[in-house]
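From the thread on structure requests for the teaching lab: each student submitted one protein with a one-line request. Submission from student K.M.:

"Model Allophycocyanin from Fischerella muscicola CCMEE 5323, tokens only."
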Amino acid sequence: MSIIIKSILNADREARYLNAGELSAIQQFYEGGVSRLNLAVTLTENEKEIVEKASLKFWERCPNTPSNSGNRMYRNSCLRDQSWYIRLITYAVVVGDVEPLAAIGTIGVKEMYESLEIPLPNLVEAIRCLKEVSLDLFTLEDATEVAPYFDYLIQSLMP
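Reply posted by the TA:
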């Protein structure tokens, strides 16, 4: 949930106006908006390259995985899912909160992958590869801003 919604809900629950600290946090959120949008644009514009490089890195680390078995459907599903996770990361970056990852990317996902017999450690490693390749696109300061979203996803998907 974004800082704006959190602040408003807290103030409304207490039947009060937003306090100075909440208004300051909202102002900082808006001031950082252009930066967050630029980070999301970088991920979006480089999604295909990120997925390609991360997949190769993943298959080097986990050669015996369904997506590297020669089955085109498994391979395409892996690439599709990696692209989907990059998209979810961009949502989280834009709103400055992990809520989109929690709401869309982690609830029920473990069970789904387990039912499809996709090893969760492999999924986690694939996300680590996405993180590594993605962070290479950023300055250290920007990478520090993006990394926690990947970390949240990795922690949420750990078996």
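TA comment: The chain has one domain: 33-157. The mean pLDDT is 92.
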